[in-house]
Amino acid sequence: MDHTPFGPSQEVEAAENVRRTVYSRVSRSRLSPLLKHYDFPDPMQSSGGRDLTTTSLQQLFVLNSQFLQDAAAAIAKSVRDVPTESRRMRELYRRLLSRDPSAAELDLALSFLAKGTLEQYAQVLLSTNEEILWP
């Protein structure tokens, strides 16, 4: 993630966009499907708050979205050089969820890696409510 304040806006789903949503371009006539799925307020109206919902459509989007697959591949690549699988998983949790995994989560992650890939597990973490609804 780029933490530099200000600067030009980018499309929220652009592959090169590594900034917070607040810096993304919002079109009133063509709202991004990503924003629509996650209760982004109607840009044509004032909104004092934002509803938080979890729907099956959101999870289908997460599972099939090229945007999230690319994000998972990028974060997996960024931790690939961490020396051991255990430390790699801890770093993945820190980067995505800002915390260390519990012992049970670490065991589950390591079991997953026996059959799955680091990219797939990164996508799993990106699809958790903890990640999506993080303030």
Low-pLDDT runs of 5+ residues are none
Q: Characterize the biggest β-sheet.
A: 2 strands, parallel
Summarize the helix and strand pattern as letters: EEHHHHHHH
Q: How confident is the prediction overall: mean pLDDT?
A: 81
Strand order of the largest sheet: 1-2
Query: Approximately how much helix is present in the residues?
Result: 40-55%
Query: Any idea how many domains?
Result: 2
Choose one word for the global shape: globular
Give the assembly state of these chains: single chain
The computed structural class is mainly alpha
Q: How would you describe what is shown here?
A:
- The protein is an all-alpha fold.
- It folds into two domains: about 1-50, no CATH class; about 55-130.
- Helix content is about 50%, strand content about 5%.
- The chain is built from seven helices and two strands.
- The chain has a two-stranded parallel ribbon.
- It is globular.
Please provide a brief summary of the model.
This protein is an all-alpha fold and 135 residues long.
Key attributes of the depicted protein:
135 residues; mainly alpha; 2 domains; two-stranded parallel sheet
Topology:
Blueprint: E1 10-11, E2 24-25, H1 33-37, H2 56-64, H3 66-79, H4 85-97, H5 103-113, H6 118-126, H7 129-132
Parallel strand pairs: 1-2
Helix pairs in contact: 3-6, 4-5
